[in-house]
């Protein structure tokens, strides 16, 4: 047993039962790995050069940068900076590598129970290039008998008897008692739970944390399913720890833990390296959140993500649970069955926290109180990808100038993305929140034919006039004198006729030839329908499919209430800040909900991110 008197760094080592679960590991992760009947994306070990190995050892904390300790950054320095430190310009240096490199290799081999050769052998290469978390294994520097080291994890994995460890930046030390180990005793120590807790200051000082997903996977995993994954993983931790996690749904409010997907250079100083290497990284909490990325978790969008076990795709549940452990203050564990084990493992059972993970997180924050509330995991119907069809899908090309375009309708779907309609075409736009309060929009895909993407609609619906998602996630589509109510692009709402219903079934007058626009007003979250010079308020819960509020309350003149709004309106959309935009041709107006009129300085040209303009 070790006991540290150091207040800012606690290490708990507990000899306990060996915890085993069925895990499939990448074929070349460990020598004892099970051979898989399929191949997985992975970088080749054959081409791993010494300078590349040095880069990985440096990145994962086995070669020191003594100037960066516990700053909350998952990697102390830009990953490319190794080139100046380890250039290896000639063959002589390849055959006679520096002592620091050999020492780092030995540390790495000790950490993962590999043969301790100090050489870049095939076993070591295979593990070095295996998919894993981008956070280093060794985060806290210490001195052993005046020899500088940074291997707190190796301290945990090898009890070094009779040595005194002096911790940098503080006056405390711990001394390990002299032991004479039998072979059996050493085997027992190798079976210990070895979670790692960093500096005590690097934890949250409040019990209620907010989280927010600001960008999503761009392929393979839908936004709805990705959202469900993160709610599930927060619940995994919430069930065992005295913390509450609340999703911050307002994009204009900051969140404690921000989740983003990005590829390569993605907004911080630590770019991802493409598929098959680093899967994700996360930032530890810092005192008073002095670091802008404190607690945030980033995932490599070059990976193909799935919300469960898959032959070739990455299991986002497993990786997300690991990164959120870092967001809460846990370091890496050397227990292969632990969520906090740094190398990617695949289990074909339900992802669970290991006793080692639970012991570590409860050491920081305490155990969950009995009967605590666990948020429900969402089960909203998904918007599936386009289905297989006999006709060839249209090629992705710029059919329009998205920075100078008039549109027919904009629909916000699942509060996750925008569907923009123009004639027979539709395209999708996503958004994300930056470290400021700005919202940035990204063109996602399209244009695609409406008939291709919305197979639930009749084939003759090759354009629409308006559309909106209701509060129950059903979607109205308006075209000429008819409307439809769908669960998603694949399914009609049960009981709704596939050929649509007349506008009169919504309570609208029979003389209407079309609906011009429909939007949800931010002030009262009610749906309004504009047609000609009149407008109506829709009651979604009236009748089987909703009805407008009737006379004498409605209809009302648009000009009497919505001053400055163009008549007729071509399209309308309420943005994330609850401002409603009205479109007329290639121009738009912004409505002031307080003054109840359009804002001064409008109309302006609709060069907007919400329409797909990326200028």
Automatic annotation (TrEMBL):
Residues noted as binding Zn(2+) 1 in the record, renumbered to the chain: 266, 268, 281, 298
Entry GO terms, CC: extracellular matrix
Positions annotated to bind Ca(2+) 4: 408, 462
Hemopexin repeats: 512-565, 566-613
List of residues binding Zn(2+) 2: 322, 326, 332, 340
KW Ribonucleoprotein (keyword) present: no
SMART domains for the chain: HX (SM00120), ZnMc (SM00235)
SUPFAM superfamilies cross-referenced by the UniProt entry: Hemopexin-like domain (SSF50923), Metalloproteases ('zincins'), catalytic domain (SSF55486), PGBD-like (SSF47090)
Domain Peptidase metallopeptidase positions: 200-367
Transmembrane segment boundaries: 12-34
Binding site for Ca(2+) 3: 273-274, 300, 303
Cofactor binding note of this UniProt entry: Can bind about 5 Ca(2+) ions per subunit.
Sites where the protein binds Ca(2+) 5: 410
Pfam families: Hemopexin (PF00045), Peptidase_M10 (PF00413)
Needed cofactors: Ca(2+); Zn(2+)
Record: active site: 323
One biological process term in Gene Ontology: extracellular matrix organization
Positions that bind Ca(2+) 1: 301, 303
Keywords: Calcium, Hydrolase, Membrane, Metal-binding, Metalloprotease, Protease, Repeat, Transmembrane, Transmembrane helix, Zinc, Zymogen
GO molecular function: metalloendopeptidase activity; zinc ion binding
Residues annotated to bind Ca(2+) 2: 256, 296
Family, similarity comment: Belongs to the peptidase M10A family.
Name the record gives this protein: Peptidase metallopeptidase domain-containing protein
Gene source species: Schistosoma mekongi
